[in-house]
Automatic annotation (TrEMBL), chain A:
Family: Belongs to the OBAP family.
Protein name per UniProt: Oil body-associated protein 2A
Region (Disordered): 1-27
PANTHER family registered for this protein in UniProt: OIL BODY-ASSOCIATED PROTEIN 2A, PTHR31360
TrEMBL record, chain B:
Residue ranges, compositional bias (Basic and acidic residues): 1-15
Protein name: Oil body-associated protein 1A
Region (Disordered): 1-39
Family to which the UniProt record says this protein belongs: Belongs to the OBAP family.
Length: 268, 263
């Protein structure tokens, strides 16, 4: 099974309304609200920054999706983001992106660098925006973010028609000047109308933003190789803990029938 | 000539950066959140971000309403078990979506994503897809999956529903093998299905920190039942003896599009 399975063909993107399932019952609502009040959500409280931009499937760069990142900064060099398909309450969680400074990126092994993309182009050209935030405030942060690199796994390929998340995650790439990295104008227009902004005006105001001295050639690798990345899941022998070799497990009841003794490893 | 200079410049900067930065790749001891490389957030950065965030609506994030603690192991290696803090949204009555963190602290690392569906939806999945999913019946009934801070009667009600569900989880950050950054391909994870699988030190540590007793929860949940049709034979696919490991493969990005590009 692979992240690049199922070529979309004529498949229509699925919408939040297409997610199968019933309306939440009253008790679900009450339980949900109750839990929300009693529990602490420290990791989540830090996800304060909303970014709207686009991402492109690395294994099929004709597929471009508008993304809504909600980011949390762990330190000066590192952000982690939950990515949704919209900024509405019915937003589907479609993936995770990690954003790191140039400094951290340069320290990665070369094989790892190949999975990352640069952010300079989309920031400089006004594609990357913080909806609701005045441009002058956005720019303060953008100068720093323009030098970052990202790694984005998409866990729900809704745009190929998946009503539920299917298959392994897909690696995403970022908009770039070189085709097919350019975002289709009609997508930009639609986004601009929704937020009453002008991407081209933002690009104008961001002319002075400087990017990295040089964008690392191993990032956005498709520019030179014309290749993306698919994630495959392959069957391998399962490594178990000692004491529960499969032969001893009653598969109907899922209960181990031998005692767990010492901790030496066993392998099928 | 120009390219040589560029290559040299890149190599110089890379080696300077590597020297400064702790090795990102394992193997090694489990890296804690303090091992995430990088300078502490500057005050100015924080102020800029907070200032901006006040103006934004964060609707999808505000729908995250439930903290759930459980354990995951790698779908090809049960020896590698991690504590998994789920922050979940009930998307609708049949679908939950959860962000997975390595702790419940402010500096928690976002390590994965889990989707949870009811039995009805699980059955509708293609068979090949079912193999990526795991059942929740054992975790719930054994008491090792719980909602920190939630009183038992309320937790019980939620567990009644969860016991019948299936989950699919991928992790992106193998901190347990010593990675100080999220490296490599996504890892399919699985969940416990029987007694004797969960590492006792891991269990004891969680029980102590949250002041809970899994044995007590197990007793309280004796009345709960798993999926109506029994745990589906295609779920928990590793129990057949074959785990699932991920690999990354280069593929053509876009047919025909690159023909006009000068390389």
């Amino acid at each position: 099974m692979s992240s690049s399975d199922i070529s979309p063909g004529q498949a229509i993107p699925s919408t939040p309304e297409d997610v199968p399932g019933g309306q939440k019952s009253a008790s679900s609502h009450i339980l949900g609200t109750g839990a929300g009040i009693i529990q602490s959500f420290k990791p989540i409280n830090n996800f304060q920054q909303h970014v709207c931009t686009w991402a492109i499937f690395s294994h099929d760069m004709k597929r471009q999706i508008e993304t809504h990142h909600y980011c949390s900064r762990l330190n000066e060099d590192f952000l982690q983001c939950l990515v949704y398909d919209t900024d509405r309450a019915d937003g589907r969680l479609i993936g995770v992106e990690y954003i790191i400074s140039e400094r951290l990126f340069l320290g990665l092994p070369d094989e790892e660098k190949k999975l990352w993309h640069s952010h300079f182009y989309e920031i400089k050209n006004g594609l990357w925006v913080n909806p609701g935030v005045p441009e002058i405030v956005q720019k303060l942060e953008l100068k720093q973010l323009a030098n970052t690199y990202g790694k984005f796994w998409c866990t729900w390929q809704f745009d190929r028609g998946d009503r539920l998340p299917l298959g392994p995650p897909a690696l995403m790439m970022s908009p770039q000047a070189q085709a097919p990295g350019q975002i289709r104008p009609e997508l930009i227009k639609e986004r601009d109308e929704k937020y009453h902004i002008s991407t081209s005006e933002k690009a104008e105001s961001r002319k002075d933003i400087q990017g990295p001295e040089l964008i690392h050639p191993l990032s956005d690798l498709w520019k030179t190789t014309a290749k993306g990345w698919a994630v495959d899941l392959k069957e391998v022998d399962m490594i178990l803990r000692a004491g529960t070799p499969l032969a001893d497990m009653d598969r109907n009841t899922n209960v181990a029938t031998t005692e767990d003794s010492k901790g030496d490893e066993s392998r099928l | 000539m120009q390219r040589d200079e560029t290559d040299r410049a890149i190599r110089e900067r890379e080696s300077a950066s590597s020297a400064r930065m702790a090795t990102a790749v394992g193997p090694g001891p489990i890296r804690g959140p303090d091992d995430v490389p990088g300078e502490p957030t500057k005050t100015m950065t924080m102020l800029k971000e907070r200032g901006a965030s006040v103006m934004q609506s964060l609707k999808p994030i505000s729908r995250i309403h439930q903290h759930l603690c459980a354990f995951h192991f790698y779908a090809y290696d049960m020896r590698r078990q991690v504590e998994a803090h789920h922050y979940c949204t009930h998307y609708n009555e049949d679908v939950h979506q959860c962000a997975i963190f390595d702790s419940d602290k402010e500096n928690a690392r976002l390590i994965g994503v889990e989707y949870i569906v009811t039995e009805k939806l699980f059955k509708s999945l293609p068979d090949e897809e079912k193999k990526l999913w795991h059942s929740h019946e054992y975790e719930v009934k054994s008491g090792v999956l719980f909602l920190p801070g939630i009183p038992q009667p309320i937790e019980h009600s939620e567990m009644k529903m969860l016991a019948k569900t299936y989950g699919k989880v991928f992790h992106f950050w193998q901190f347990d093998r010593g990675d100080s950054l999220p490296l490599g391909p996504p890892q399919l994870m699985m969940a416990l299905t029987a007694d004797g699988q969960l590492q006792q030190e891991l269990a004891a540590d969680v029980e102590k920190r949250y002041d809970v007793s899994f044995a007590e929860k197990r007793k309280n949940r004796e009345d709960l039942e798993g999926p109506e049709g029994g745990v589906h034979s295609l779920s928990n696919s590793w129990t057949s003896g074959k785990g699932l490991a991920s690999a990354i493969r280069p593929v053509e990005s876009c047919e025909g599009v690159f023909q006009s590009v000068h390389l």
